[in-house]
Design goal:
Layout (H helix, E strand, L loop, with lengths): L7 E4 H8 L7 H8 L12 H8 L3 H25 L5 E4 L7 H6 L4 E4 L2 H9 L6 H10 L3 H6 L3 E4 L5 H24 L1
Parallel strand pairs: 1-2, 3-4
Helix pairs in contact: 1-4, 2-4, 6-7
């Protein structure tokens, strides 16, 4: 919805997926750090295998982040520099956990919903269960922590697409002129 209004979207999860896909720039380092067990039959990162590893082993999580986070940050910076918009929206799923990202952005929007809704939504994805979704969500920053860093919150709980779009429009009208002023200065 922000892209429809002219913002350039830089999706760090999509970047991570490209970096860890077959032939991706992160794959050699991931293979070196974790071995062949984390490489799937398609030649890319076996995300379910890696998820199981990092949520059972804190050191593995830190190794994964040490490989991926610098590459993601560099690619996000490259995409931002190439963007044809004065408004950049960085979609960062783990922003609350990252001092780096919070320091790089002017404002933070959190799209929020109840934990039970979040678990239900994640569990609908292929290969996910309610228990797996609950475990991953519990390992991340809490709703309270995410909301605490937000400049704005949109509650996406039983919201229609039209209702969500109306909230995005309101926020766009409020924030977009500030972005224009920052570019002009």
């Amino acid at each position: 919805m922000f892209a429809q209004r002219g913002a350039a979207i830089i999706d760090t999860d999509a970047i991570a997926r490209r970096l860890s896909a077959a032939g991706g720039a992160a794959l050699p380092a991931l293979r070196a750090a974790f071995g062949d067990a984390v490489v799937g039959s398609d030649g890319g990162l076996d995300r379910s295998e890696m998820r199981a590893l990092v949520f059972s082993d804190r050191a593995a999580k830190l190794r994964l982040e040490a490989v991926l986070h610098p590459l993601i940050a560099a690619e996000a910076a490259r995409e931002a520099a190439a963007a044809c918009s004065s408004v950049l929206v960085f979609d960062v799923p783990l922003l609350a956990e990252s001092q780096l990202w919070r320091a790089r952005v002017d404002r933070i929007l959190v799209i929020d919903c109840s934990t039970s809704t979040q678990i239900d939504r994640v569990a609908q994805r292929p290969g996910w269960t309610h228990d797996l979704a609950r475990g991953v969500i519990e390992a991340q920053a809490s709703r309270t922590a995410r909301r605490a860093i937000a400049d704005a919150v949109i509650v996406n709980e039983q919201l229609t697409l039209a209702g969500l779009d109306a909230q995005v429009e309101c926020l766009w009208r409020h924030w977009q002129p500030m972005a224009q002023n920052a570019v002009e200065q």
